[in-house]
């Protein structure tokens, strides 16, 4: 397991290779300052300062080489501008020439992420590449964000057989114990009586994957109460409305919402953010057996609303409904939920952009700004009540599946809105939690999408230290 604190270190003048950053505007002037030998090498390579292009520049002896790499803007480094080069370089220490890496520290670490838990042998060449920075105060926060990101990736990448509700509980227990939080778990008969929709979704699973509501409480009583709610469907077969094999292949990632809120809770507690945290994970496996809930069943929710089941594959909103109700009973001023909720959001926005819904414009703006600041983009979608009639049914208060194939992500958000109390600011992330292909610093597989945007919002809203 990578110790990310080993990958960025304070710059105390120690020996290190130099990384020269260039962009299309600065390249010609930079090239003029280099030696004739270096210019000849770059000319022979037909080097162009296009995105992520890099070259090794030999020095006067075998040990004095340096690196040049192209970025979009040398005066405004993105989080990802060093992410591609980090895993390609030899092991050792590096420093940027004439500038500090800033948020590029994150991409440097992220580019060295590996998920090797199921490999019999570690890949060769996986030793640390260390980046030096004079901004010592940036190191701990960046490492914390990377650890949280890696946690999301690791949990989502782990197969459903090894990351069921019980395993999610163990992760929550470890996080709570490390930071003095209180863990509460509701399962069995207490779950059936108190959280009937979570129980119904998970009751068909094997005993060792029994459903549960996992809660972490942390923080001082006089601090503002914040609730983080995550969908923890450890594997989604679709239930009796079974998915095709192609749709089921990645459903180990359907607990991605839980992974995000556990990582976000870790950031909150590790940083000592002055909030009263309530983290809730609705954990279940949507399996198939003789006890599975059925299309046409009517479930009573914790809130008292009755829900007719139009599709057993629309189960995430059911478990979230009960969890949102529980969170709301403690009267938080802010609720944030994460869920891998709908394919419709992916049709609309693709894999990279989480769909953001919010009932508060200021909250939405803060989340969008956080996404820009952290290079973790979001896209706000309309929480439009005009589609609420699509959730109407003949025999219950509402249905879990819209009566139309249109606006699937919006109607799912509107379903959740029915379980959010009036007066509380609420944001809902319909995130993919997965990358179908790799990008620099963002490996194929489990992905933290929206995590750092949400963290930036929480810091801006509650961290008085950041405001001086």
Written description of the protein model:
This protein has 468 residues and is α/β, with parallel strands linked by helices. The chain folds into two domains: 4-134, Leucine Aminopeptidase, subunit E, domain 1, CATH 3.40.220; 143-467, Aminopeptidase (3-Layer(aba) Sandwich). 31% of the residues lie in helices and 20% in strands. It has 14 helices and 19 strands. It has helices at 27-32, 36-45, 104-110, 139-157, 165-178, 188-194, 196-202, 245-248, 256-271, 316-329, 343-349, 361-374, 408-417, 451-462; strands spanning 8-10, 17-22, 54-57, 66-70, 92-96, 129-133, 182-187, 212-218, 225-236, 276-286, 298-300, 306-308, 334-339, 355-358, 379-380, 398-399, 425-430, 434-435, 445-446. It has an eight-stranded mixed β-sheet, with helices on both faces. Strands 1-6-5-2-4-3 form a six-stranded mixed β-sheet. Helix 12 (361-374) links the parallel strand 14 (355-358) and strand 15 (379-380). Helix 3 packs parallel to helix 4 and helix 9 (256-271) packs parallel to helix 14 (451-462). 46% of the residues are buried. The model has no long low-confidence stretch (mean pLDDT 96).
């Amino acid at each position: 397991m990578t110790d990310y604190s080993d990958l960025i270190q304070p710059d105390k003048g120690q020996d290190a290779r130099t990384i020269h950053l260039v962009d299309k505007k600065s390249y010609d002037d930079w090239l003029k300052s280099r030696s004739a030998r270096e210019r000849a090498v770059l000319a022979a390579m037909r080097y162009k300062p296009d995105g992520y292009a890099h070259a090794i520049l030999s020095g006067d002896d075998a040990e004095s080489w340096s690196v040049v790499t192209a970025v979009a803007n040398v005066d405004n480094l993105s989080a990802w501008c060093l992410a591609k080069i980090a895993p390609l370089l030899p092991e050792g220490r590096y420093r940027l020439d004439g500038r500090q890496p800033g948020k590029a520290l994150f991409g440097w670490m992220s580019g060295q992420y590996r998920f090797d838990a199921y490999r019999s042998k570690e890949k060769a060449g996986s030793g640390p590449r260390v980046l030096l920075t004079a901004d010592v105060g940036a190191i701990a926060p960046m490492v914390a964000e990377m650890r949280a990101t890696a946690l999301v990736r690791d949990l989502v990448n782990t197969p459903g057989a090894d990351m069921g509700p019980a395993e999610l509980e163990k992760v929550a227990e470890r996080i709570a114990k490390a930071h003095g939080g209180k863990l509460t778990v509701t399962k069995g008969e207490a779950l059936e009586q108190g959280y009937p929709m979570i129980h119904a979704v998970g009751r068909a699973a094997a005993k060792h994957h029994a459903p549960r509501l996992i809660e972490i409480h942390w923080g001082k009583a006089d601090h503002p109460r914040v609730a983080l709610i995550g969908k923890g469907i450890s594997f989604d077969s679709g239930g009796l409305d079974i998915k095709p094999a192609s749709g089921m292949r990645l459903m180990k990632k359907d607990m991605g919402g839980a992974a995000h809120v556990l990582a976000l809770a870790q950031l909150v507690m590790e940083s000592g953010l002055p909030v009263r945290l309530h983290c809730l994970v609705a954990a279940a496996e949507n399996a198939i057996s003789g006890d599975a809930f059925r299309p046409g069943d009517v479930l009573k929710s914790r809130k008292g609303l009755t829900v007719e089941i139009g599709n057993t594959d629309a189960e995430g909103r059911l478990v979230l409904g009960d969890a949102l109700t529980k969170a709301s009973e403690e009267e938080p001023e802010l609720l944030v939920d994460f869920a891998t909720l709908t394919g419709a959001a992916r049709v609309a926005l693709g894999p990279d952009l989480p769909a953001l819904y919010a009932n508060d414009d200021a909250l939405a703006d803060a989340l969008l700004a956080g996404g820009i600041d952290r290079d973790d983009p979001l896209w706000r979608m309309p929480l439009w009540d005009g589609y609420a009639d699509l959730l109407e049914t003949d025999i219950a208060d509402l249905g879990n599946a819209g009566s139309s194939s249109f606006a699937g992500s919006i109607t799912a958000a509107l379903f959740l809105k029915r379980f959010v109390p009036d007066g509380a600011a609420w944001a809902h992330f319909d995130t993919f939690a997965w990358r179908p292909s790799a990008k620099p610093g963002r490996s194929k597989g489990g992905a933290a999408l929206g995590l750092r945007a949400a963290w930036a919002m929480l810091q801006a809203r509650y961290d008085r230290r950041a405001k001086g």
